[in-house]
Structure of TMPIT-like protein:
Amino acid sequence: MADSKAALEESAKNVEEEVRRVVEQAKELQDSVASSISKASSDELSLRHRALSLDSSIRRLQSLLRSLLSYHLLDPKLVNKLQEELERARCIMVDGDAATYLRGKNQGGFLRMFLGPINVRASRKDVQLKVKEEYNSYRDRTALLFLLFPSILLILRSWIWDGCLPAFPVQLYQAWLLFLYTGLALRENILRENGSDIHPWWIYHHYCAMIMALVSLTWEVKGQPNCAQKQRGVQLFLQWAMMQGVAMLLQNRYQRQRLYTRIALGKAKRMDVVWGETAGVDGQLWLLCPILFILQGFEAYVGLLLLQTAYLGVVSEWQVFFCGILFVIMAIVNFANTVQTLLAKSRFKAKMKRIKVKSLHVK
């Protein structure tokens, strides 16, 4: 006991000095950190200037090559080679840490509406890639749910609910669709902020789907009498959603294989979500395209059926008419984008074939 008291008395003599020393150390640490941040900011400003200058030079040279090609002042083969070299140089920049210093896309109103005026651009490439990995994982999970959720509803409709869906499970599914499409749209906007080349229609399509899910939540699901006729549109929509789940699973796998091909060729950034003109796996393409065209045709059919239902007065709510129009519009634009993708792929293959034939003639 006496020893403890003596130790406390000794500490009381030194405590003031120790507190003073800790305060001085805190001040020194703050000064060191502030100096380091200032130096890092100065270095960052210099690197940003170099990155922007180099990016501007690449754009200028690309524009110059297009002009020289249009006036036939350079050999087309040489122009193609130089354009590929410039594209590789740009991929090196945007796929590396230098991408942090490049100008990002202007943050859209959708992100500002949900997140406010905050910066969602990651400062490190590994963080950006984690954002994309999470997006791919989210798409995989939701594709499975897109397939399972309507399948369960249709099975229960036949086995338990005597061919007439209750309102609550359908509205629960529509609420989940609203959550799904909002999550996809948020993730895709964030990916675009971080340099991903996502096709704009993909995002607009999810905006339309969000609006439709929100409107359908206010749509009263009619029951008996004449339940089968009143719920015909709902039944077809659930069948379409099952097909959409299968198509999503195929698309996810197909697009990733195409992405690896483009990155290996130096024609894509690691942050890209691939679409359009690239080479891919022909076996999957022959399977995927018919499914997509059938899906789009079925989507248009569901939309026309909803419009017919509203026109004939079977279910006369405005929500039915609105959702029918949205279905038809999305089906038409989806079809146009799929055809555009196939044409671009066909042109790319024809170009590669011509280059191969020319190289054989040269040999």
In short: The chain has ten helices and no strands. Residues 2-70 form the longest helix (69 residues). Confidence is low (pLDDT under 50) at residues 274-283.
